Amino acid sequence: GAALKLVDAVAKLAETQIDTSKLQEHASKYAFLVEKNIEALFKPPAEAVAQTRKEIPLVF
Question: How far is CA 59 from CA 31, 52, 56, in A?
Answer without folding.
Answer: 48, 16, 10
